[in-house]
């Protein structure tokens, strides 16, 4: 689950006790809507603005401790596969006879369509069951995906690869959706779907709304009686949108569990605080949950924020990073490297999981790759195989190459920051991306100063 308007760059402190007026109004409407669906705010949760995270949740009156429930939301408040299957008007937009087993979409892509469908009903003064929720969604998102083209040109390959992958996937899904519903028009306004209503720009925003705000559950627990969309979908229907609950922000210092629990009349989606940095959280103190043990790269590209000194962070390298290091380092460039070594590394996927961790040091695969490239003269596959999968103690001799590699990435990321600083203006996504790059520089600098990068372990 997630929110994308959480801004980790420093800003002027905001009042921590009063939400912005229009947000307060929309949240009051959402409170009333959820209350009609059976939600009882037993933990006295309230949405406020906090200096570091923006909008978040706290309890107005209760002191909460590990083991306490944070929220209990009736399952009928969730926007799940059951919701979509029960909506006759939405199902009618998708002609089941046109479904193609070789052209399927993810459930996330379908929920994005449902948000656009409900948004159109809401905007045209028709009855939308999600109107109260739609008014609380962010107006913009801060993933690198939404950076301006000039900003994307200043980002490292690791970010660009993920952004390009996201763009490719979104466009593929959109083309499938366009084939299915693009020729239909809205009976109320006469506009064409996927041309006037479900535009690509609107679909992108809806897709990331679902991507960043979903909770995950066992799809069998909310299995609908109807299965209209089954042959259209690839993968599980194991996500749902959870109005109001998705205002919780993420922290690496807490652990939470979520489950569907019987309540006598149906089911509740129950979120429980398992561990926290403090033994007791006071009223009006922000409550956090865990989205999982996620590194900053994942948080940034999927949710649009990062954590300073994230306990779950690490920095990953690619084989091209090492190749660039060789090309730019005079001492290393003077050596000879047989192409069979790089071919062996690629064929055995040794370039996967090449990273450094501030506490654990250099990953095994990174040590193996550095050893094979810089310490071995052999280049026959059978010999390389014996070395790569042999005694691990031999891989401790990767200094100073590891130091060279870390210093190379620090310099490279500083160059990306400088390039962003030279742009006349940054989008909100560009500002967040720049702050993330600075956090990477700090992380690598700390690693460079650690025992892992200064001497053999």
UniProtKB/TrEMBL annotation:
Residues 41-292 form the SET domain. SUPFAM superfamilies: SET domain. GO terms for molecular function: protein-lysine N-methyltransferase activity. It comes from the Eukaryota. This is SET domain-containing protein 4. It comes from Drosophila albomicans. The lineage of its organism: Eukaryota, Metazoa, Ecdysozoa, Arthropoda, Hexapoda.
């Amino acid at each position: 689950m997630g929110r994308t308007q959480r801004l980790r760059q420093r800003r002027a402190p905001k009042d921590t006790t009063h939400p912005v007026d229009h947000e307060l109004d929309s949240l009051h409407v959402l409170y009333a809507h959820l209350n009609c669906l059976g939600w009882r705010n037993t933990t006295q949760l309230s949405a406020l603005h906090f200096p570091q995270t923006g909008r978040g949740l706290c309890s107005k009156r209760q002191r909460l401790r590990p083991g306490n429930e944070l929220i209990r939301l009736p399952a009928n408040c969730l926007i799940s596969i059951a919701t979509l299957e029960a909506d006759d008007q939405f199902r009618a937009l998708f002609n089941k006879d046109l479904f193609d087993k070789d052209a399927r979409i993810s459930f996330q892509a379908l929920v994005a369509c449902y948000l656009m469908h409900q948004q159109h009903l809401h905007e045209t003064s028709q009855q939308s069951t999600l109107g109260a929720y739609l008014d609380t969604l962010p107006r913009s998102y801060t993933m690198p995906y939404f950076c301006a083209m000039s900003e994307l040109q200043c980002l490292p390959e690791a970010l660009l690869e993920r952004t390009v992958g996201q763009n490719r996937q979104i466009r593929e899904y959109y083309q499938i959706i366009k084939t299915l519903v693009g020729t239909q028009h809205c009976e109320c306004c006469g506009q064409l779907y996927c041309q006037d209503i479900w535009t690509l720009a609107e679909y992108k925003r809806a897709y990331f709304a679902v991507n960043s705000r979903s909770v995950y559950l066992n799809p069998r627990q909310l299995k609908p009686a109807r299965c209209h969309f089954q042959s259209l979908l690839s993968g599980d229907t194991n996500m749902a949108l959870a109005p109001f609950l998705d205002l919780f922000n993420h922290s690496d210092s807490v652990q939470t569990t979520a489950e569907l629990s019987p309540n006598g009349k149906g089911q509740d989606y129950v979120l429980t605080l398992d561990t926290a940095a403090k033994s007791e959280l006071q009223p009006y103190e922000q409550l956090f949950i865990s989205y999982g043990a996620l590194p900053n790269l994942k948080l940034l590209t999927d949710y649009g924020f990062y954590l300073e000194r994230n306990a779950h962070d690490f920095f990953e390298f690619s084989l091209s990073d090492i190749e660039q290091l060789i090309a730019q380092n005079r001492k290393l460039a003077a050596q000879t490297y047989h192409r069979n070594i790089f071919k062996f590394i690629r064929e055995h996927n040794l370039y996967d999981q090449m990273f450094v961790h501030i506490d654990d040091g250099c990953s095994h695969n990174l040590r193996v790759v550095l050893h094979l490239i810089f310490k071995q003269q052999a280049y026959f596959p059978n010999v390389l195989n014996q070395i790569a999968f042999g005694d691990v103690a031999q891989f401790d001799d990767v200094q100073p190459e590891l130091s060279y590699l870390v210093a190379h990435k620090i310099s490279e990321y500083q160059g990306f920051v400088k390039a962003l600083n030279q742009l006349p203006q940054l989008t909100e996504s560009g500002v967040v991306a720049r702050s993330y790059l600075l956090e990477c520089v700090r992380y690598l600098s700390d690693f460079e100063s650690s025992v892992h990068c200064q001497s053999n372990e």
